[in-house]
């Protein structure tokens, strides 16, 4: 499997692009890409062309995370302005506005079933769960403080939460923190299960495997330059892969579960073969750090292929074909 560069949209936003997520296809629309930027907007892209479909305003500070509902009809964006905006993809009408304390939402993710929106971030070191039927806060999953510390030492910075991922069955959540730890939660019981250790710097991105037989497998990336593969249930580090020359800011897994892509502050996107446990391709379409990589759904014309998108501080969006 390899990545073939397709198109790069230069100046896709007016400032750094920090986040991207694919909106699944609906009866009325093919898959679209959502991007969020420091320019305070969320933009929607048709990869054919590629062309900009619309620009969504509504935040008054930079957008740090975007997430799409599995239905493809609604999406959410989170900003440093402390608001989460839930909106209709087709019309951009606001469905709900969820308020969080300042800088308390760094990453959003809908569960695979579409019933819950998870928001992770900030010094509260927690993951907040919102019900998508009524947009009510239904649970707060607290990341435990390190044992043995005096209360005065249990500062929020030690466990500042940065990233979140749902297991494929929606029963577990993983949360990555500034101190390099990953916390795993049992969602139905709203209970902390255990930590996954191995990183020594901030864990900025997490994703569970998409392969049916590997639903316990969790991929993580960190400022320590490493990509880790964990068995999230058995608390074991399966392997650690390295190759980027700087912080690894983002990771996503291919729909076939055979590869992952990563983006880094070394300005590159890398494709990793999971059987070989090595990077098989380095792509350099960006001129600044790559904040997000996102695999799209499989192509209708070729079910063995899909698109990958990457976004960067250089204000560009790049598209690739994975096949």
TrEMBL record:
Ranges for the WD repeats: 10-55, 56-97, 154-195, 196-240, 241-282
* Pfam families hit by this protein: WD40
- Asked if the keyword Nucleotidyltransferase belongs to this entry, the reply reads no
The protein's UniProt keywords, in alphabetical order, are:
Repeat, WD repeat
Q: State the Gene3D superfamilies in the record.
A: YVTN repeat-like/Quinoprotein amine dehydrogenase
This chain belongs to which protein, by name? Answer: WD repeat-containing protein
Q: What is the lineage of its organism?
A: Eukaryota, Viridiplantae, Streptophyta, Embryophyta, Tracheophyta
